[in-house]
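In the current project phase, our protein records have gained a structure token line. A sample record follows, to show the layout:
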Amino acid sequence: MTGLALTTVGVAAAPADAARPFPTSAEDRPGKTADRPGTPETPTTDGHRGTSDEKSKGKKEPKGIPIPCDTDKLIAAITLANARGGATLDLASKCTYLLTAIIDDAGLPAITTPITLNGGKHTIIERAAAVEQFRILTVDTGGDLTLNHLTITGGQTDSDGGGILVNTGGALTTNHSTITRNISGDSGGGIRNNGVATLNHSTVSRNTAVFGGGIFNSGLLTLIKSQVESNNGSEAGGIFSLGNMSATHSVIAHNQASDAGGGLLLGSGTHTLTHTRIVNNAAPQGGGFLLNSPGQVTLEKVLLADNTATSQSGGGAVVSTGAFLVVRDSTIKNNTAATADGGGIDNAGETVLQQTEVIGNQAGNQGGGIYNEATGTLDLIATKIIKNVAVVDGGGIYNDNGTVNLNTATGTIVIKNRPNNCVNVPGCAG
């Protein structure tokens, strides 16, 4: 397995009209050591912008300048706020601000100062369907945009960021907001982030792009109690990240890619996901996610489940040569490589599983639980590989002349797999 070669292809198909519900049964949650990711029971405070307990508990935002339900007045207010060094604007509830003309390659003036847009119940900013294509918002260098209780929808562009483009030196925070049904002919159907983006209690859904249907990140991206669902892309249906990314108590679900990385495609940078679900995503390879060199990913208390690689390897995940994956206290369950290897994981890089369950995964060829490539190094520490199935060989683990360390003294077990537990794995009973 080598790193994925990225080539420009045509725009992905439009997203489906209806999102499927997330799995909520106890069976779909991580094991004994994992909490319930993707749920808001426990407030999260980890030092990021926009993540205070006050915001998490839904306290009212500071009062700003009231903006009536009039698109021209919203445009004028943002223009004035930029000129005066920033402002807080209170948009009207039950109002759709319908954008009809291009301003700075977007529907609204580019954000160049600290500006907060407070929405209310059913406050929407939308591009009119019959007008020329443009994104909704651009955040330029020096801009610091906060969206509270807003929906951003209908943006469409041949370039980056169908909904929102955050340029280098810009910052975006969304609180209790939705970025939906936006289209990019290049990267970031919902959001293209080259700066700093923090999504708090927010949803990115039903967006479309070639690279990163939901989000494309080359800066710093943080997800807190947020959902990236039902997005479509060629490479990375949900999130394509070449920068640093973290996600906590979030859900990445029902995304689809026509090439690779149904849920995520992760490259250079450091990526950390905790208390998070990556479920029901699909792609030809890397149904849940694909990790390219020299990327590094840490999963802790994560559920990686019910993802599908439709024609190639890695139902749950693909770890490419030169990439590094660490999984702790997590569950890798019921993923499928329909016709190829590695129902749970296809590993060609370095992968460490610690106190993790790999259970009920299926491969149409070899390695129902894990397929370890010739370049792969796999370390299992206090890990259970149970009840996985391969059509051909290596129900639990198939090792293709790579390195596999079971570390059985730590409590690692490989049992009840079909048609056998292991192939070419020292210390593992067939």
User: Anything to note?
Assistant: The two ends are 25 Å apart (CA to CA).
